[in-house]
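Following up on my earlier message about magnesium ion. Here are the inputs again, as you asked, copied directly from the submission form:
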Amino acid sequence: MNGREHAAPEILPPCPPPRPEQRELLHVDCASHVYPDGTPGIHGMCFRVYEGEIVALCGPNGAGKSTLIEHLNGLLQPSSGRVTVLGKDARPGGEQELWRLVGVVFQRADDQLFAPTVLDDVMFGPVNLGLDPEQAAAAAREALAAVGAGNLEGKMPAYLSGGEKRLVAIAGILAMNPQIVAFDEPTSDLDPVHSAAVEQIIRDLRDRRGISVVLATHDLDLAARLADRVCLVKNGSITAEGDPGAIFYDAPLLHDAGLREPSFVRFYRDLCGAWGIDPGDRPLTLEEVARSCRCAPAEEPEGRKKLE
Ligand SMILES: Nc1ncnc2c1ncn2[C@@H]1O[C@H](COP(=O)(O)OP(=O)(O)O)[C@@H](O)[C@H]1O
Ligand SMILES: [Mg+2]
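Thanks, got it. Here's what our run produced:
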């Protein structure tokens, strides 16, 4: 005996099987990451991204969302476990390079912007991908236009507002033509107009470009409006996964993960309680709640005057 204490090996639950009806792009396969100071960032993390979906990672502060996101583009490597892309190992220098496939929009846009002008900044990615300066500028201008920030191309990134910085950071990612875009708390520090703009961009990525989106957030209202699939993150792993209606109407599950239901879920559940009816249809947005309450007309009534 060498006198050291040996902890019993931990048996991690196996990764849940993939959804057969969807095409898997990326798989974080039982990955753990321990930071240099010994803090576990993620632990036995199993997470998949499928084609054309918005998947939300919901968890409180410190749950491991950002650590997971940094594994998606190879910024961090797992201490154990692995990340695969289209079934192939995504180790640095391997066949599949994560940074080409996955773009990450970080929580602090300042971390991402560094060039003298917005155009230079957004061109940086395409130039790194090997495009010549003219092609890179065209890709950058197209990406800036896609996020409604074409007017900012000559500005210095340092002088942009927080909302403008976020849009430019998103353009910088889109200019690289990724298949997956991961957003880390994309609207947490934005005003309502920029929040709505970012929300619409996320929707458009899926609906118009077929890009898969990973959305890390503790704002469950945002996740309820956007997500096709929800993963609850707690203590560095995913504790539950499912359709938004199933997850967001399960109050004990959310409370266990350190979260509370989205505001419209609370409102609708309380309303149904007061009316003595079953909230079985599980609306998740203001419009859906209104429809469920039969407050919203299904169609525009005839003869209603349209305001210009
Ligand atoms: N660079 C770091 N060094 C040490 N510990 C870190 C570092 N970054 C994050 N952590 C720790 O890893 C855990 C998960 O953090 P994080 O991934 O940032 O969670 P979330 O994004 O869900 O708030 C936390 O305990 C946090 O303190
Ligand atoms: Mg975070």
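One observation from looking it over: The two ends are 83 Å apart (CA to CA). Hope that helps, and feel free to reply on this thread.
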